[in-house]
Design brief:
Strand 2 (100-102), helix 7 and strand 3 (118-120) form a beta-alpha-beta unit. The termini are far apart. The protein is globular. The longest helix has 13 residues, at 36-48. The chain has one domain: Rossmann fold, CATH 3.40.50.1010. The protein has a 3-stranded parallel sheet. With 223 residues, the protein is mostly helical. It contains 11 helices and 3 strands, in the order βααααααβαβαααα. Helix 3 (36-48) packs antiparallel against helix 6 (85-97) and helix 9 packs antiparallel against helix 10.
């Protein structure tokens, strides 16, 4: 059964756009609410920087006739957290509708749970799609492997393996992602400046799962 209200932060939108899986949202959740700040981050800023997934997301929203939701009042205690505006708006919007929140960033997930919200990340969306018969077990494994292998979708390889093995295919194994240490958090959504050679070297072993969105790329280049 669909939740009455489903709200998403930028992370799952961008990841699903990169995987060409945005079409799963409507059969799973119906109309998904996207706050203005989240839209600005995932679409407006992404299009300005020429990221393919931002164009994909913009086209999908136009096709679905989904419009950004006007900002809601953010509770004072939520404003006092270190979360950014998009995360705060997404949580506030989900609180207002007593709904499900799609979000990957671990700190934001913690803040949402503390306020009684049910949260689900990109991996959870894919697992739910499998449970609903929208994708096969082989497709689920493939998407998990793609997330693990890609440099522009940073979700813990250990989390990918654990989710897949625990819930759906314990006999399957994933190839390790060669990025150094596994991360404890699922994803951080911070955009980075184009890195120097030193920064690139340091970033490869960074402990956080940071989604890379380098600036200054052409519209034909993916972030």
């Amino acid at each position: 059964m669909r939740s009455a209200v489903v709200v998403t932060n930028a992370g799952p939108l961008i990841a699903l756009a990169k995987l060409n899986l945005l079409h799963l949202l409507e059969p799973l959740y119906g109309r998904v609410q996207i706050s203005s700040a989240v839209y600005d981050e995932a679409v407006v800023a992404g299009v300005r920087q020429g990221f393919i997934d931002a164009y994909t997301l913009r086209g999908f929203m136009q096709q679905q006739a989904w419009e950004p939701v006007s900002p809601v009042e953010i509770p004072a205690d939520l404003q006092a957290t270190p979360l950014d505006r998009g995360e705060q708006e997404a949580i506030a919007l989900a609180l207002a509708g007593h709904g499900l929140l799609l979000i990957d960033e671990e700190l934001a997930r913690q803040q949402a749970r503390q306020r009684g919200l049910t949260v689900r990340g990109t991996l959870g969306v894919l697992i739910e799609a499998y449970r609903r018969g929208l994708i096969t077990a082989d497709q689920l494994r493939l998407y998990f492997q793609q997330i693990q292998d890609r440099d522009d979708i940073w979700i813990s390889p250990r989390l990918c393996r654990a989710c897949f093995k625990k819930r759906w295919a314990a006999r399957q194994t994933f190839r390790p992602k060669t990025h150094g240490a596994d991360a404890n958090s699922t994803m951080r959504r911070r955009r980075a400046q184009p890195p120097s050679a030193t920064q690139r070297s340091r970033d490869i072993s960074a402990p956080q799962c940071v989604r890379r969105r380098w600036l200054g790329v052409e519209p034909t280049v993916a972030r």
